[in-house]
Specification:
Radius of gyration: 14 Å
Shape: globular
Strand content: 15-25%
Oligomer: single chain
Order of helices and strands: EEEHHH
Number of helices: 3
Strand order of the largest sheet: 1-2-3
Number of strands: 3
Structural class: alpha+beta
Length: about 100
């Protein structure tokens, strides 16, 4: 995930990158890269925006959070999530699912 800051209660997801792999071979079987249109960019941490490379031009085609979460939910259903700092990502996923519920 790329986010607008470190606090899932205040900050938003800007981008998802998901790679789906076959668990035994790790062969890639799917994935997605989805940019999310921020609803409250004014609350973003400027350093976070710098780190993730956010700029309005590159996010012109970004989708609303609800649409992104529907796509991600379909990809993640029944999977095991692995990655770097999964606790951070998980906290943002939980907050985002609550926002669109």
């Amino acid at each position: 995930l790329e986010t607008t800051g470190l606090d899932p209660a205040r900050h938003e997801i800007l981008e998802f990158a998901v790679i789906c792999a076959e668990p035994r071979t790790l062969k890639m079987i799917g994935g997605a890269n989805i940019r999310v249109r921020p609803e409250h960019i004014e609350t973003a941490d400027p350093k976070a925006l710098e780190v993730c490379g956010y700029n309005e031009k590159d996010w012109e085609d970004a989708v609303p959070l609800r649409e992104a979460m529907e796509s991600i939910a379909a990809l993640l259903e029944g999977t095991l999530i692995a990655g770097h700092n999964v606790g951070f990502d998980w906290s943002f996923l939980e907050a985002a699912f609550k926002r669109v519920d």
